[in-house]
Structures are given as C-alpha cells and as structure tokens.
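Action item from last week, closing it out:
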Amino acid sequence: MLSFAQTADSIAATASKLAKTALVADYFRSLPASQAAIAAIFLSGRPFAAYDEATLQVGGALLWRVIAELSGKSEHQLTEIYRRHGDAGSVAADAIPTKPKAVLSLTDVQAAFTEIAAARGPAAKAHLLRQLLERATPLEAKYIVKIISGDLRIGLKESLVE
C-alpha cells in the first residue's frame, strides 16, 4: 500500500496528462496482475469495482471520529489541520502518528474494505476502520481515507487508469 500511496502522491504532483499516464503504467507494470487489478480500482477512487454492488457505508462523521481517536488530537486541532489541507485524507496523514514501517498490502486493504462493507452498524464499522488505520503509515492512511470518501483528488480520471 505504501508504493500505491507514493505513486498517487507522484501523480498528484504532476500536471501533465502524459506524465500521469506514464506513472500509472509504470506502477501497474511493477505489480502482479492480481495486485494491479486492485490498484486500478483504488486509483479510480473507489474501494470496490464499479460492477460490484458493495458499499462501505462509512460517512464523514465516522471517518472524522476514528481519525480523532487515533491521533489523540482535539477537535480544534483537527479542524485547524483540515483548514490547512481541505481534505480528510490529508488530515489523516497529518494527524495520525507515524508508524515505524509499512505493513499493509493492497490485498490487506481490499480485505479490510470487504469486512467494513459486511459489518453492521457504525460501531462495528468504526472498529474495523480503526484497526485498518492503526496498521497504516500516515501516507497510507491518507489514501485509504481518500478511497473511502470516494475522492482521490490527484487529477487522475478513470479513463486514464483504463
């Protein structure tokens, strides 16, 4: 997942459509086919393929609460971070403490999304989301939250991913 997040950051930092396409192509070539398929879904800004009817049913309030719990920051501190960045994913990256080493794979994140979608009730979903974000580096958390919210905001359209 760290490689995915780094690639997404590189794509966001690039204005050229051709350069974005080249970054995506290079990233896909570096992955086995099964991992590339997961990455393509995530780069489309969705946790599940378009044909899959599963939904996470995780709203902004739940995301905010889990980020607040993991960060240990006050509501005021998180609001200030949000004002600086303007997006929940960047708040997660800024607020969640740094982990010593990345341990999440794309498959781990996909499995966690499947569990969250199957969970019933906000408490169960919050627990699973907290477990996922606890294992993530700040950069990984940024893109996990962005995928959950459905908006990567990296200037990459689904047609470029295809």
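Closing note: The chain has a mean pLDDT of 92.
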